[in-house]
């Protein structure tokens, strides 16, 4: 059931367009050149990302799903203390595929759940709601279209426990500095007894990381290059996708995977809508994404700086991925 009182309006297409224009103007004229990772997710990009999540080399989604399946009961038991319903708030809910494991566990325990998926994409939220609605007709849905980075969500006071979910190692796409306001806002919205379940990817051997971000079928390469298609379409640019190649690098100093697009030759690209003529040298790169990988220490530091304490950590046997239950 979708609560008809739900608020939140999709960002006006004009806002997305002007944000894109501003970021492209700044990012492509600075050195090193860069674009923001959110630009990777147009319709084609979101579809390619879905494909990435089931690639043999891309272990995070699969590993997190196994952890959730194995520990959903323990996670719920440590938050729910009844008799009031449990409110589950999910940042960047996407299709809510992994959340369904927690909802199944809640159904087994007869816990009444209010599920609030938050996402910038209205289409993703519709998909999340219809997936949840068909499998769990008793769950009350309160979807919210919001950019939780620019507009920190304000949760209504609630008589019961709240479990916030931030899964899929999405926090890793922000620098530690960028992620602080997101986590701090969550901490400020949660009461004692509430919790944040955070999914984070951990530092591991470089070849495993490189393979995950440079798969042999070339899906991640297509995902990265698609950002240029988006600029061609939305800003009337003339990037030649054959003139650039995908690069995935491990940056040990920053503890992050980086995606770049490298110019294969000297070339000039026009971004007509912005009146830009960009000269690329051969080998020059555009930095498109960071994906931070954590250690116990850096994860603990990130959370404590935002006002959280880790209560429980669940890791897979290879220690490649962590789910942490955090309290303020
Ligand atoms: C969405 N995000 C957590 C993914 C990641 O692993 O950083 C995005 C991604 N980029 C390349 N492959 C997957």
UniProtKB/TrEMBL annotation:
InterPro entries: EgtD, EgtD_Methyltrsf_superfamily, MeTrfase_dom, MeTrfase_EgtD-like, SAM-dependent_MTases_sf. Residues 22-327 form the Histidine-specific methyltransferase SAM-dependent domain. GO terms for molecular function: methyltransferase activity. Keywords: Methyltransferase, Transferase. Pfam families: Methyltransf_33. GO terms for biological process: methylation. The keyword Membrane does not apply. This is Dimethylhistidine N-methyltransferase. It comes from Bryocella elongata.
């Amino acid at each position: 059931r979708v609560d008809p009182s739900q608020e939140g309006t999709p960002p006006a297409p004009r806002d997305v367009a002007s944000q894109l224009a501003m970021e492209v103007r700044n990012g492509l004229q600075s050195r090193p050149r860069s674009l923001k990772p959110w630009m990777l997710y147009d319709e084609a990009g979101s579809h390619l990302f879905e494909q990435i999540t089931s690639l043999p080399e891309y272990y995070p989604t699969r590993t997190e799903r196994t952890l959730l399946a194995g520990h959903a009961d323990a996670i719920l038991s440590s938050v729910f203390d009844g008799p009031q319903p449990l409110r589950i708030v999910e940042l960047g809910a996407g299709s809510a595929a992994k959340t369904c494991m927690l909802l199944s566990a809640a159904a087994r325990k007869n816990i009444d759940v209010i599920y609030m998926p938050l996402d910038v994409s209205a289409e993703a939220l519709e998909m999340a709601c219809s997936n949840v609605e068909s499998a769990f007709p008793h769950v009350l849905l309160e979807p919210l279209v919001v950019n939780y980075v620019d507009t920190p969500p304000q949760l209504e006071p609630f008589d019961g426990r709240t479990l916030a979910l931030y899964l899929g190692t999405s926090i890793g796409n922000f620098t530690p500095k960028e992620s602080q306001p997101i986590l701090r806002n969550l901490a400020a919205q949660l009461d004692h007894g509430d919790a944040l379940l955070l999914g984070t990817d951990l530092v591991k051997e470089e070849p495993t990381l490189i393979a995950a971000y440079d798969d042999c079928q070339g899906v991640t390469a297509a995902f990265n290059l698609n950002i240029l298609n988006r600029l061609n379409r939305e800003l009337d640019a003339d990037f030649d996708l054959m003139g650039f190649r995908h690069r995935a690098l491990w940056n040990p100093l920053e503890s992050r995977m980086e995606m770049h697009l490298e110019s294969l030759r000297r070339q000039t690209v026009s971004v007509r809508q912005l009146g830009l003529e960009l000269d690329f040298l051969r080998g020059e790169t555009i930095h498109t994404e960071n994906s931070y990988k954590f250690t116990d220490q850096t994860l603990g530091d990130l959370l404590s700086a935002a006002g959280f304490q880790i209560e429980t950590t669940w890791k897979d046997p290879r220690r490649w991925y962590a789910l942490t239950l955090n309290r303020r």
